[in-house]
Amino acid sequence: MKVTMQMIAEAVGVSRGTVDRALHHRGRIDQEVETRIFDAARSMGYTLPAAEDGNAGTAGLKKEIRIGVITYLCNAGFMREINRGIAEAQEELKDRGVRIILKESEAVNGQEQLAYLEELEQMGVDGLAVMPIDTGAIRKKLYALSEKGLPLVMFNSKLSGIPRLSYVGMDNYQSGRAAAGLMSILTGGAGRILVITGSFGNQLINARVDGFTKEIKDSFPDLSVVAVQSSFDSAREVQRIIEDSMQSIPGINGIFVVSSGQTGIRDAFSSLYPEKRPAVVIYDQTPKNEKLLRDNLADFLIDQSGYEQGYRPLHILANAIGKGILPESQEEHTEISIRTKYNL
User: Fold this and answer.
1) Which CATH superfamily is domain 65-169+306-334 in?
2) Residues in CB range of 30: below 8 A, 6 or more apart
3) How many whole angstroms separate alpha carbon 188 and alpha carbon 56?
4) What are the Cα distances from residue 343, in Å, to 4, 265, 287, 324, 337?
5) If you classify domain 1-63 with CATH, what class do you get?
6) Which CATH class is domain 172-303?
7) Contact at 8 Å (CB) between 158 and 197?
8) Residues of the chain with pLDDT > 70: what percent?
9) Which residue in 217, 226, 170 sits closest to 195, CA to CA?
10) Is the pTM of the predicted complex or chain greater than 0.85?
11) Residues of the chain with pLDDT under 70
């Protein structure tokens, strides 16, 4: 018996029109409902006729590729470009039968990310692009998924020792070294530097700090890092750390902010009224950070090409799953772009 959309609608408990929109990717459908429709269509053996599908019969249902994407700090400024890359890749890949299932967290929450990994595993996704958080449970889960043959791409941050197709993102250790070089120029190679991080469990942040402190130690003996403090990506914490440190530690003439929450720099300097503000190096080209440069509250900004980090992983996975084309390298580094107010 030929399976019809009406039969799928009755099986799922939705209208025939909802089934039609889901199968033809017309309009917005609740993600859970859409997943149930596609799962029911597959199990019932439904295939779109060639006349209805522009690609000779969609193999739509038979060959649909589902890629899970997991991010965190979804409301942070640096995520704007990453999300733009994800959205554009999603639109481009739609005609190839690729469906993106995006899971976002507002904070760096290991338990929430683990739950997303388990949910996507249960959904039977064909590939996974993830900004991984470094916890033992997540390492174990990602390793198990990779060992089961699930294609995996890490982006923005990475975990060592876990098989993957590729990592797409900045060489964060090297960018930390670059920041140390910039700080030496700004300070004349002498002074005391305050380092402000985000979360200590964030491998990306840790790599930047490691590169910075190692280069300071190796190449600039008259510079010293007097404190490394965590802001947990909060602007209020960035402000507090700067105020407390500058009032309690004499001679701070450089501040390196590795985390989000850089707007706290403005509030701290407004509160302290320093005669000569410290040199400031920050990350990520966002509208708020551009304003810090233009208002002479920061000197250098290191950008990580967020658009590429959102865009490229989805194409890597789609090519590997759909065409058997593997990336040439397990490390696809984005450019370390250095911005001043003159070249934004």
Assistant:
1) Response regulator (3.40.50.2300)
2) none
3) 66
4) 58, 21, 14, 41, 11
5) mainly alpha
6) alpha beta
7) no
8) 93
9) 226
10) no
11) 1, 25-28, 47-63, 201
